[in-house]
Amino acid sequence: MNHFIDIIIPVPLQKLFTYSITTSEADFLQPGMRVSVPFGKSKIYTGIVAKIHTDPPAAYEAKEIHQILDDGPIVNEKQLRLWQWMANYYMCTLGDVMRAALPSAFVLESETVITKHSKAIDESILKDDEFLVYEALQHQSSLKIHDIANILDKKNVLPVIKRLIEKEAIAVEEEIYEKYKPKLVRYVKLHTHYASQEALQKLLEDLSRAPKQHQVILTLFSVSATTKKPVKVADLSTESGASASIIKSLIDKGVLEEYFIQTDRVQYSGDENEDSKSLNDYQNTALIEIKESFKEQSVVLLHGVTSSGKTEVYVKLIEDVLSKGQQVLYLLPEIALTAQLITRLQNYFGEQVAVFHSKYSSHERVEVWNHVLNNSAKAKIVLGARSSIFLPFNNLGLIIVDEEHEQSFKQFDPAPRYHARDTAVVLSHIHGAKTLLGSATPSLESYFNAKQNKYGFVEITKRYNDVLMPDVELVDIKDKLKKKRMKGHFSDRLIAEMTETLRDGHQIILFQNRRGFSPIVECNTCGHSPQCPNCDVSLTYHQYRDQLRCHYCGFVEMMRKKCAACGSTELDNKGFGTEQIEAEVKLLFPDYKVARMDLDTTRGKYGYEKIITALEQQEIDILVGTQMLTKGLDFRHVKLVGIMNADNMLNFPDFRAHERSFQLMLQVSGRAGRTEERGKVLIQTYNPHHNILQQVSSNNYIDMYNEQMNDRYNFKYPPIYKQIKITLKHKDFARVDTASIWYAKALRSVFGDNILGPESPPIARIRNQFHKNILVKIPKKQSLGKTKEAIIKINNSFLSVKDFRSVKVILNVDNF
Ligand code: ADP
Ligand code: ZN
Ligand code: ZN
Question: Is residue 271 over pLDDT 80?
Fold first, then answer.
């Protein structure tokens, strides 16, 4: 009998590919194992076995595989089911899903670039063919797979490469996220041996013969007594006048202990060292209700106000699941994955916590992958951003989706354009596990699902320790301008509150929903503003480098001295961003330390950490930032939050702008006053009577929900209707225009009025491609499956029109 396998390869083609295998290969292979295969004229791919069978393909002669790469499946059956669901639901190919799901070191293919491993190895462990490749890389910095095929004079080279990777002789090149090493700040403290009064007394006596060392110890005391902060080695050296070598000798003697804030926080090596906290009554009730709800529902929404102690409730649930020997996935938006939270969980669960996110190298990701695959004790709890739903769990008991309202759970580009929260619900279902969605400001869709009894629902309405919700004050800047009570972008109220807060030794966060100095440059004479040559968008001015930049394609040029249209030198900045606020604060409060947190200041693996650590260590008095500030941070000393301008988020052209503004403002406000003292929030706006602002200041989620849902009903938006966005792209406007009219007409013949468009988006051209959007609105009672089938049919006829073949079509399901 002839044997065949269907395999998934990482290319965006709809079908699986069938290859022929021998009988012994058929006995050995299992779904989820990797094979290397020839593809097209000369390409090589790594494929994942989906199915083993005996039916030859009808349309073509099946080629033979090159080789089997694994001894057992690296992707399990549950994952394959999830991949299949994602491909169907999000209307993409299994190849798209495979590419997103696997670390790049697992998917070797012709185009993969191989480099030397940074470590030297013992060459004697290499076989002959391995050595040839290894040696070639001593002379060349990198090789592609087909170069290696030439060196070895054979096609079948993936097994050799795989072995070399495993022996750490070579590595797969990837985007380098982290080119610099984080600067580690050295701190010192007195060794715990000297904690007692007597021991200390004795130490000072012993050191009396070494006056310089004696002086260092005394200085350490006085510095830490006055600043009440950890003491940096550098500061200790300056204050005591002792050289670095004197401090070092004290460290060597074991009198002082040095530590590094950065490594301390990110690389945890110890065991669990803390019991989980005992819950207060509100938390306890919530925990009981969640468990009760899980008896009937597989998904529960926990609506708990900021700082109500949701994390501690999660911890209790995690303990339960672990005690049953099951795995936990704890999903967070990328940016909320802070060292703060990681450390907190590691204190409870020690090495059982594994962290997975996109700033990790492929090597680190493979490591976590293998721990999860082997159900290792080192990855019982995976704390990760959206892509961690792809890990090879085999025994999940619980998925927590914290900050479930966050938009960053949705992947927009490339396919699969999935929403990690929704995918998590499906993943959980495949495992027979439970899902807990948590948020202080739930998304309308989740709240709606709870109201429909599709999800269970539990609330915590009190902050932990009965800390009051912050006092929110709206400041009318139109009025302030009229009365000349604005200094730059600061109202007299904001300045007064800031002055008082700083005087009392507390910290301030200022929120500005834009990065860059001033988004747009405009000519005062003719009104022209410099545009990106590749996109239909004005360039953004960045003061720090005196550059104009495009936020869509990355285009950069130096700031111009003269208007390109009329030659006038009167160029003006319109609008304002984080950089400008930072500059103004520095002028208003020259004696205080100001820092900025936005995409520009937080690049690199530790960029974000550094700023957060500095804020925690009270090295920063005023932090200016974008939405990054909203994410799950717990700062003790922040008392005042200022929202510089609420209007630009409220006026954003998107059906979720109001919901998002509410969430954003409430989340930022939640950073104020998390301990004893009540926090204060000042919101500056031109329109203080806006309903959303009223709802934010009274912390009234229900009002916001009801009002927004009303609009969603009236205008047929999610969660009332489902939505699929179809985007067509081409460099020739006329062609994409004709194509989109054709496409929309075909859709209308099936769906009638529920088709909107084609429309040019606000930014009609990006990277020299013109865009057209068509929106398909899907009433709840219309079958989603049938709708997608009809779209695929239309899409296929579209692609068979010769003129349209070069038009790129993007299908985005749940595009919001
Ligand atoms: P949320 O996630 O709801 O914003 P957190 O879980 O971060 O709130 O809790 C806010 C603060 O209260 C944290 O500093 C946390 O350590 C503390 N906290 C919460 N619950 C307890 C508890 N049961 N015992 C002691 N401290 C708690
Ligand atoms: Zn001009
Ligand atoms: Zn551009």
Answer: no
User: What pLDDT is recorded for position 272?
Assistant: 59
What is the Å distance from ligand 1's center to 464 Cα?
A: 6
- pLDDT tens across 538-581, in order? 788 877 788 888 877 788 898 888 888 888 888 877 666 788 88
The pair phi, psi for residue 637, each rounded to 5°, is: -105, 10
With left for phi above 0 and alpha for psi between -120 and 50, is residue 580 left, alpha or beta? alpha
Query: What is the C-alpha to C-alpha distance for residues 577 and 597, in angstroms, rounded to an integer?
Result: 12
pLDDT at 633 over 70: no
The string of pLDDT tens digits covering residues 158-181 is 888 888 888 888 887 654 333 323
**What distance lies between CA 88 and its chain's CA centroid?**
24
Ligand 1 center–CA 276 separation, angstroms: 11
List, as ranges, residues with CB under 5 A of the ion ligand 3: 532, 534-535, 550, 552-553, 555
Tally of CB atoms within 10 A around 202: 12
Substitution candidate for ligand 1 out of 290, 311, 342, 667 with most atoms within 8 A of CB: 311
- pLDDT recorded at residue 700: 94
- % of the chain residues with pLDDT over 70: 92
User: Higher pLDDT residue, 272 or 132?
Assistant: 132
Beta strands, E only, 131-185:
142-144, 170-172
Task: Pick the residue whose CA is nearest to atom 5 on ligand 1.
Answer: 309
Q: How far is residue 579's CA from residue 585's CA, in Å, rounded to a whole number?
A: 10
Task: Of 52, 50, 46, give the one whose Cα is nearest residue 26.
Answer: 52
Q: What is the pLDDT of residue 220?
A: 87
How far CA 674 is from CA of 140, 274, 634, in Å, comes to 56, 22, 7
The response to whether residue 673 sits with its C-beta less than 6 Å from ligand 1 reads no
Cα–Cα distances in Å, from 474 out to 183, 511, 686?
Answer: 40, 14, 10
Those residues whose C-beta lies under 8 Å from the C-beta of residue 134, and which sit 6 or more positions away, are: 123, 126, 164, 169, 170
In terms of Cα–Cα distance, which of 256, 207, 204, 250 is closest to 230? 256
Q: What protein residues have CB closer than 5 angstroms to ion ligand 2?
A: 523, 525-526, 528, 563, 565-566, 568
Output the average pLDDT for the chain: 87
d(CA 260, CA 268): 12
Q: Which of 280, 305, 348, 634 to mutate to test the pocket of ligand 1 (most atoms within 8 A of CB)?
A: 634
Q: Which tokens go with 813?
A: 């399901």
| Cβ 25 under 6 angstroms from ligand 1 | no
| Four-point Cα dihedral 394, 399, 401, 407, nearest 10 | 30
- Cα distance between the two ends of the chain: 50
How buried is residue 662: exposed, middle or buried, by Cβ count under 10 Å (0-12/13-18/19+)?
buried
Which residue's CA is the closest to the ligand 1 atom numbered 10?
A: 307
Residue 631 has pLDDT above 90, yes or no: no
Q: What is the pLDDT of residues 719-742, one digit of tens each?
A: 999 999 999 999 999 999 999 999
| pLDDT greater than 60 at residue 300 | yes
For the residues 309-315, what does the mean pLDDT come to?
95
Going from the Cα of 555 to the center of ligand 3, the distance in angstroms, rounded, reads 5
> Which one of 223-227, 278-282, 451-455 scores highest in mean pLDDT?
451-455
Q: Are 741 and 795 in contact (CB under 8 A)?
A: no
